[in-house]
Each structure stands twice: as structure tokens, then as C-alpha cells.
Amino acid sequence: MARLMTFADLLPTLLSIIGVQIPDYVQGSAFLGEQKTKDPQYAYLSRQRMDERYDLVRAVRDKQYRYIRNYMPFRITMQHVRTLFNDPSAQSWEDAFKAGKTNAVQSQFFLPKPVEELYDTENDPWGINNLASDPAFAEVLARMRNVETEWMRKIRDVGLIPETEYSDYFGGKSMYDYMRSEACPFEELMKASDLALFGGPDDIDTFVGYLKNENSAVRYWGVTGLLILKDAARPAIPALKEVAFDKAGAVATFAAEALYGLGEIETARRSYINLLGSMDVYDSTDRNFALNSIDAINDASPEALEAIQKLDQDLTKNPSPVTSTSGYERRMIPYLLKKWEAGSVASDQPFTKIFN
């Protein structure tokens, strides 16, 4: 097999070709030029926000196996991203799934994901047979899992903090600086994120303890762990209700989503309405994160529709600057109202002129 390469290798390779010293902070490795490295044993991959949609995936592969870790297993792979679904093939795929015309393999992209995936790329190049739970591949799984974890530790992975909270941490610098500062509880975040994915009902007290942490990212992993537990998280309902109105939008959103799944519909809706309506507390990224969650639970209730339509009106009356990192709620609003056949929107046009 040829050398393993990713897009992260392009920058160091270009610097190597033109004779510029590659900075230590640059990820990837040069595959041409004077600074060309030996063929790497592993290649690292990631998925995070896709325009108006959120996911968090980390992956690693060697020349035979590909390991995937899904930090948001409750989100489907084929989330409805406007740019992607402008392609007729993506839309026809979704239409076929909704019509019950797709087989098990074709359907899996529209269903919740497993926490871990492992594929033998030599014998299964399309990644159909997940070997993560196969005892015969336990050693491979453990090795790839460890390699992925150590890579995240090496790069001080910013994905351990939800994007909605970035502005509260980087100050006048950057998230790169924050992740390497003494203020960042990095190892605590690693531990909390691992427990969120691999913990169980016996860890509910620990998750509830995380909800009381002063660091919003630790609280986020606490509520994520409870969301993944689904009905088993029922003993944590009182704690979830307390953080359903957390000042951190991602924490409040996942608390609302967990409560909704546990049957606490009224509290969940009040949380969502608060997230969408409190302009002085939550910003554009918080609102978009909440809209993603409302879409995931598919709550087309009169209360949710009223809150979304009011947000649409507020954004039209008081438009905020649209940049590449904000304003995506102006994509989610028309999508949701169209999906629920709930009328047209006023705030969509300025955004589409810029981004489509």
C-alpha cells in the first residue's frame, strides 16, 4: 500500500518543497521535499461542525484498520446540511430511507451511530462490517483506541470543548493557546469525555458531579454521558432540570434533549424556548446548537414552532453580522419550518445570498 496521507500533510509538504522550516505546531508530515519524513504508521482524521450541523468524530487508521470514535452517537451521519442536500443524490437517498426503500447498510447513515467502529480496510474496503464488538479483534481495537487517545492528547484536542463555548475561553488569544494553558483542565476533560462514552448506569453519580463543575466543558461531558444513557439516566432527572437553564448553551441544550427523552417534556420545552429567546444570554452558536437538538427530537409542538417563528422575526428586526462562524440558525429555521410545513420565513434570504 502507498504512504498514508491526509489533508493535514499538505501544508508541511508545501513548506518542505519551498525550503521553509516547518513549525513545531503544524500538524501532518511532509511527503515531499527536503523535510520529507518516513512513512507514518498512522493517519488521523476528524469531523466536527459542518456548516449549520454539529458532530464530533475522531478516527485513526493504519494500513489495514480504521478506528472511529463517535462522541455524539445520538446524531446521525447524514444530518441535513443545506449545501450537501442541494445535491439531488443526497436528497434522493434520504427520500428512499424515509420511504423504507433502503437496506440495512444503506440505512445506517440515517440512524444513531455506535460509540466505536473498527473496519478491516483490506477485506472490507467499504466499511460495512463493524468489528468493534468482535472478540477476535479485541487487541486491534485496544491498540487503535490507545493510538487515537494519545493523538488527541498530543494535539491538545480542542474538540473536548463544545464550539458554543469557545468565546468564553480564548479571551483575546485563541483556543490553541487556551488548550495549552494552565487554565485548561485538559486531563479532566479527557477523563470526562471518555466516561461519557464508555460509562454506564453505575457512573450516574459521577456524571451528576460533573454537572456541578465550574468548567462548562466538564459539565457538557456530564450531560452528554447522561444523554447517551437514555432511560437509564432517570435517577439524574433532578440534576438535569437544574442545568436545563445553564448559562452554557451546549449544556442547557443537551440537558433539555435528555429530559425530553425521559418524558420531562414541559421542562425540556421551557429550556429550548429560553435558549432561543434569551438574546442577552445566548449567542448565535448557542441558538443554532439548540435548533439542531430540536430537529433531532423532532418536536414540532405549537410551543416550539412559536419560539422558532419568534426567533425568525427577531433576527429579521435585529440582524447580526453574518460571518463564517455565526448566523447558522438562519439556515436551521427555514429547514425546520419547511420540514414541519409550518410556513415561510423572513430571515433566510440575507444569509443565502452570502453563503449559497
Question: What is the CA–CA distance across the termini?
Answer: 39 Å
Biggest β-sheet strands, sense, barrel: 4 strands, antiparallel
3D shape: globular
Helix count? 17
| Share of residues in helices | 40-55%
> What percentage of the residues does DSSP assign to strands (E)?
5-15%
Mean pLDDT reading: 93
Q: Could you spell the SSE succession in H and E letters?
A: HEEEHHHEHHHHHHHHHHHHH
> How many DSSP E strands?
4
What would you call the structural class? mainly alpha
Which radius of gyration do the C-alpha atoms yield?
A: 21 Å
Q: Which regions have little confidence, pLDDT < 50, spanning 5+ residues? A: 349-356
Q: For the largest beta sheet, what order do the strands appear in spatially? A: 1-2-3-4
